[in-house]
From TrEMBL:
Location of the W2 domain: 587-758
Protein name, UniProt field: Translation initiation factor eIF2B subunit epsilon
Organism: Tilletiopsis washingtonensis
Quaternary structure and interacting proteins, as annotated: Component of the translation initiation factor 2B (eIF2B) complex which is a heterodecamer of two sets of five different subunits: alpha, beta, gamma, delta and epsilon. Subunits alpha, beta and delta comprise a regulatory subcomplex and subunits epsilon and gamma comprise a catalytic subcomplex. Within the complex, the hexameric regulatory complex resides at the center, with the two heterodimeric catalytic subcomplexes bound on opposite sides.
CDD domains: W2_eIF2B_epsilon
Pfam families listed in its UniProt record: LbH_EIF2B, W2
Homology family: Belongs to the eIF-2B gamma/epsilon subunits family.
Skewed-composition ranges (Acidic residues): 499-510
């Protein structure tokens, strides 16, 4: 048989000389080597298969789909033929899962036990020792959420390697905006040349001053670049990378390489002995950030490496900001879902007529929701039962959980098999481990953690989530209620205090507080303290509530000290004419987009299209015109507000009731910017100045934007921008008028926490 043409790679084929390429392989790591999700991944005993599954990071549910299923589906689209799963202690559980849920056709999956592995480096040294990798392979982190064209990325890597044999690796990353949910507190620093080669990397974030070693400038000249460097602090790790066959041996040659980006990448870039080169593939997210020259394709990629990131990525996907990752689409490996209002619901869900499903909510098939249950921005797993008069907000409830009546959950995660009895209140950021019982009538303060085993009983070989025989039988902790079962752990962030002396073991510690779901700026007194303190000074409200912003994820002040996008250094100006032409072309595309988008919205209004169809039409136009999502926000918000009459409250209310979900959709990945756009519009149009405060109340009451976002907007530099383009003094006056709403939100949050403390 004649060899396949290279156009049919990357799944295996011939190179340009006719030599047969090795079939494309993938290595999936089953362990995170982190305690970021503890005690959610700490089971009571190894004998329970359900709890053992929960202790395996690779089988952790994401929107009720095991992460492994998402990985295998993505790899099958890239035509990967051989997959190796490396696991410290869950090989048997993974084999059982694969027996029940087979891999896609044409893919062979081998599970490899690596009991001695304590890091990514150890895992790759194990792969090298087995000599099973003979060509390029995809390295997949267990918590990666990826919607990229992996086949195209592999093909580009192979083409680059044909030209430059020193090409060892292509790192995948996603560009994010400054206020994007998926962006962490600190963004790593990347320095690239014009060929997308990575020249410098700093993993721990940057401040306002960026230092680039002089050697990097010389390296750019050595690599024959165009003299232009791109400094980027707007990228997040995608969790999947393309590696050459030489990568595992490089780990074997240097046992100091433990982590991939913390050790291996800087080691390769600074080595005087190695000629290996690392390149970057950057996909442009829908955040609306300005695209740098290294941005190559649409797509989505991020790591759910902490409970904060897990929630942020979940919200991105549910908001449609992570295309092509769309629940219930043809490539989604989970159950089929139907849309009910602004929520997604699986088959066989038992709903009472009084149940309220708010926006950004997903309820899996087989769940039972009682009377007057209220859900907002939450994910409910299969076979979950929720009792009457219970409110769940911003939370994740995994499968087979029982929640009693009159309970309240705020930005918390409840692991599979847990039970919350009647009257249980979980403050923000609570984590309830598998099989634990809390209640009845118990209030847990923010960031409480309840584990199936005692804290510290998951050390050493068990710290990555491996099941083991507990030191103590299941006990009743008085703080968990009369029928409680489990152990109360130190609150999130407190587990680091006694262990912070050894920075080298940082990955073995509990995650820092800012990495936990529910963390707010006022909770963080280390990295963010300077930023948080900078927000006071221009009003009584700010002085009173200094540092009390509702969300570290969406608070613009949390990121003021970081470089927010890319910076181009150098260049000889030779391409000045081309740059001007490109700019003119971009302006023309933008003008065409605005014209077509307004026409599309006009048709949607006149012909009564659904908001979903209107949003799809706008998205199609944006992709065809290649404009930032911020332009979609601007057009949609301006169009809707233009049709509102501030003097006719009934007419305005009807328009916002009908088209408010479209505002929610376009605002989903940067709610702060969306509110700022509304402020600017109302400031520039004097007829709409009286509309701004009622509009803000409507956004809050209908949950079109989160209360955290409203507070974060009020504190943001954009809200305090009195420039002429923003509306001048009129914009500042609108911010002052919004103060009572912000005060109400903050006081409500404060009262809620005080009530929790009193109870």
């Amino acid at each position: 048989m004649a060899p396949k043409k290279s156009a049919k790679a990357p799944g295996g084929g011939a190179d340009k000389d006719g030599a047969q390429e090795e079939p494309l392989a993938a290595v999936i790591l089953a362990d995170t080597f982190s305690r970021a999700f503890a005690p959610l991944d700490v089971s009571a005993a190894a004998s329970s298969s359900a709890e053992s599954i929960e202790s395996c990071a690779l089988l952790r549910p994401f929107l009720n789909v095991p992460l492994l299923s998402l990985h295998l589906r993505a790899l099958s689209l890239a035509r990967v033929e051989q997959v190796y799963i490396l696991s410290i202690s869950h090989a048997d559980v993974l084999r059982e899962h694969l027996t029940a849920h087979p891999a896609p056709p044409g893919m062979e999956v081998t599970t490899v036990r690596t009991p001695e592995a304590r890091s990514v480096g150890d895992s790759l040294r194990e792969i090298d020792a087995r000599q099973v990798i003979r060509g390029e392979f995809l390295l997949v982190q267990p918590d990666a959420i990826v919607g990229m064209d992996l086949a195209a990325i592999v093909e580009a890597h192979r083409a680059r390697k044909l030209k430059d044999k020193d090409t060892a690796m292509t790192l995948c990353a996603m560009q994010v905006g400054e206020n994007a949910r998926s962006r962490g507190l600190h963004a790593p620093l990347h320095v690239l040349n014009g060929n997308s080669q990575l020249l410098h990397y700093a993993a721990h974030g940057v401040g306002k001053a960026v230092e680039i070693p002089n050697e990097v400038l010389f390296l750019e000249e050595k690599e024959g670049g165009d003299g232009e460097l791109e400094v980027r602090a707007d990228l997040v790790e995608a969790g999947i990378d393309v590696c050459g066959a030489e990568v595992p041996p490089l780990f074997s040659e240097n046992f100091d390489y433990q982590s991939l980006r913390g050790d291996f990448v800087p080691g390769i870039l600074t080595s005087d002995l190695l000629d290996s080169k690392i390149f970057m593939h950057v996909c442009g997210s829908s955040s609306g950030a300005a695209a740098g020259p290294s941005v190559q394709k649409n797509g989505y990629g991020a790591r759910a490496s902490s409970t904060r990131a897990y929630d942020a990525i979940t919200r991105d996907v549910l908001a449609g900001a992570a295309h092509p990752l769309v629940p219930s689409s043809n490539i989604w490996p989970g159950e089929r879902l139907e849309k009910r209002g602004r929520a997604l619901v699986g088959a066989g869900v038992a709903l009472d007529d009084t149940t309220v499903l708010g926006p950004g909510t997903l309820v899996a098939g087989g769940a039972k929701l009682g009377a007057d249950v209220r859900l907002a921005r939450s994910v409910i797993g299969p076979s979950v039962s929720v009792g009457a008069h219970t409110a769940i907000r911003g939370s994740h409830v995994w499968h087979s959980v029982t929640i009693g009546e009159r309970c309240s959950l705020d930005r918390s995660i409840v692991a599979s098999g847990a039970t919350l009895l009647d009257g249980v209140v979980l403050g923000r950021g609570c984590l309830i481990g598998p099989g634990c019982v809390v209640g009845p009538n118990v209030t847990l303060p923010p960031f409480s953690r309840v584990g199936a085993r005692e804290h510290g009983d998951d050390d050493d070989e068990e710290w990555s989530g491996n099941a083991a025989t507990p030191k103590t039988a299941a006990a009743v902790d008085p703080a968990l209620g009369a029928q409680g079962k489990g152990f109360l752990w130190p609150r999130a962030g407190e587990g680091r205090a006694a262990e912070d002396d050894d920075d080298d073991d940082e990955e073995e510690l509990d995650a820092p507080l800012h990495d936990y779901l529910g963390a707010e700026a006022g909770d963080i007194d280390d990295d963010a303290s300077d930023d948080a303190s900078s927000i006071g000074g221009d009003s009584e409200l700010l002085d009173e509530w200094d540092g009390s912003s509702m969300s570290s994820v969406e608070d613009a002040d949390m990121h003021e000290g970081a470089v927010g996008a890319s910076l181009i250094i150098g260049g000889d100006g030779a391409n000045g004419d081309e740059t001007a032409a490109d700019r003119a072309e971009a302006n023309a595309r933008l003008a065409d987009f605005k014209t077509e988008a307004v026409a599309s919205l006009k048709r949607a209004f006149e012909e009564g299209h659904t908001t979903d169809n209107a949003a799809i039409e706008l998205k199609t136009l944006r992709m065809a015109s290649n404009v930032p999502l911020s332009e979609v926000r601007q057009v949609a918000i301006s169009f809707i507000l233009d049709r509102c009459d501030a003097k006719d409250g009934k007419q305005t209310g009807a328009i916002l009731d009908r088209w408010g979900p479209l505002i929610e959709t376009v605002a989903s990945d940067d709610e702060i910017e969306a509110v700022a756009m509304m402020q600017t519009y109302c400031a520039l149009h004097t007829s709409h100045a009286a509309l701004f405060v009622p509009l803000l109340k409507k956004l809050y009451n209908d949950d079109l934007v989160s209360d955290e976002a409203i507070v974060a907007w009020w504190r943001s530099p954009a809200a305090r921008d009195g420039s002429e383009a923003r509306g001048g003094e009129a914009a500042l006056e609108l911010r002052r008028r919004a103060e009572p709403i912000v005060r109400f939100i903050l006081e409500s949050a404060e009262d809620s926490e005080e009530e929790s403390d009193e109870e």
